[in-house]
UniProtKB/TrEMBL annotation:
UniProt subcellular location: Cytoplasm
Organism in which the protein naturally occurs: Temperatibacter marinus
Crosslink feature (5-imidazolinone (Ala-Gly)) location: 143-145
Pathway membership: Amino-acid degradation; L-histidine degradation into L-glutamate; N-formimidoyl-L-glutamate from L-histidine: step 1/3
GO cellular component terms, semicolon-separated: cytoplasm
A molecular-function term among this protein's GO annotations: histidine ammonia-lyase activity
Alphabetized InterPro entries for the sequence: Aromatic_Lyase (IPR001106), Fumarase/histidase_N (IPR024083), HutH (IPR005921), L-Aspartase-like (IPR008948), Phe/His_NH3-lyase_AS (IPR022313)
NCBIfam families xrefs: hutH, PRK09367.1
PANTHER family, sorted: HISTIDINE AMMONIA-LYASE
Reactions that this protein is recorded to catalyse: L-histidine = trans-urocanate + NH4(+)
CDD domains xref list: PAL-HAL
Alphabetical list of Pfam families matching this protein: Lyase_aromatic
Protein name: Histidine ammonia-lyase
Amino acid sequence: MNILKIEAGHFTLAQLRALYKEPVKLVLAGDWKTKVEIARKTVTDLVDRGDTAYGVNTGFGLLANQRISAEDVEKLQENLVLSHATGTGEALPDNVVRLIMALKASSMAQGHSGVQVSTIEAILTLIEKEIYPIIPEKGSVGASGDLAPLAHMSSVLLGYGHVRYKGEIIDANEGLKIAGLSTLQLGAKEGLALLNGTQVSTALALRGLLMIEDVFAAATVAGAMSVDAMKGSDVPFDARIHAVRRQQGQIDFAASMRSLLVGSDIRKSHETCEKVQDPYSLRCQPQVMGAALGVLRQNAEILLTEANAVTDNPLIFPEEGDILSGGNFHAEPVAFAADCLALAVCEIASISERRMSLLVDPKMSGLPAFLVQDGGLNSGFMIAQVTTAALVSENKTFAHPASVDSIPTSAGQEDHVSMATFAARRLKDMAENAAAVIGIELLAAAQGIDFHRPLTSSKPIEKSYEMIRQRADFYTEDRYFSPDIEALRNLVLSSSYLDFVEGLVPSST
């Protein structure tokens, strides 16, 4: 198992990608325990003095004015966790749960949450031992934190609920025993610190970002392959065109296209052709994909900031001895970021579908109709293009912004919410749809390149071609097509195309 050592609140995107991709032992560097202990003392001192602070010795939400006696403070925290474990739906996958736990541990280790060191250490141990709480995916509105899903994570520490260990779902107490842990006795404020926060929304949005980066990288290569397959022009990728537009994403994407196409014999074979301009889906790739790249970069920064943030409530500021009630648990930044990412992945798939439409149209591509010989007898890629159209249309519906919705909760006390959890969760479906669209375009572009043999394309495109042909043979006649599409969808989502666009997407820089 790899060891990932970070200072609390200082994850990089590359580290978050590594954490998402495979199990790690997460080690917190620096003097975090001292910070946590000082903040914890601020909380216990308040209780000992008999002062009042929200969530420490009061009820929650609309019940904030209800004072809790000193002897019931610990029971209050346990009640909070158990009563808030109200999630429903499928369990989140282990890699997302691992991200959630890591973000929560990092947040609380910054010394503003007032928890015990042992609480953070217990979460780190579960990560190391690959024991993942079963967290239902639905039930959070993305304000007051991701209360229900974080309650399911936290209830495991108390011996309630279930965990997944080595692929099997077992009782929480059995999981704690395997990890060498005892059930926690939560102190004042600890339950609230565990439940408040945007870690679930953020982890889901990070999953979406990382999947969309994989889709973007594959779509970049697919676009270049389609240009060569259709003997398109590389003039639209000339650096001078993009320099005067000044959009950095566009500039960088065009540079990537030039590097993907350089050295292609197919391109050299039509340098003197009479074609003046290609359709937009070929010619305007830098403008469309460059804009999408800008969205990825901007919102990756927002999500990285959120991943390293302290977002529970109230917050402890030991130097001043203050416990301040605010609203860092409101996940509006995550909701906006997720909505923007949804727009980007929608467009990435949309322009790919248009290139696919060109590839199967002999009038536009100069290739055999539907990319198969003996058309009529064979339908070729006809319905594969229909599949791309269906998936793109579905993504358009998914792309409606979730952040513009709100619904009051907690008897009106929590009267505006972000809906960030759903905004982030739906990115997975959108990315998987887009991956299938890009996978189909890669199949079609490889088919088009085969029709130009013995001419070869550039080294990068030929490498992509080999990756495709390892999974799907040349389409000589109609065959059961679905396995080829599934294989290419999986290839797109495997991160294999990130090497083709090194340094282009946020988590690779």
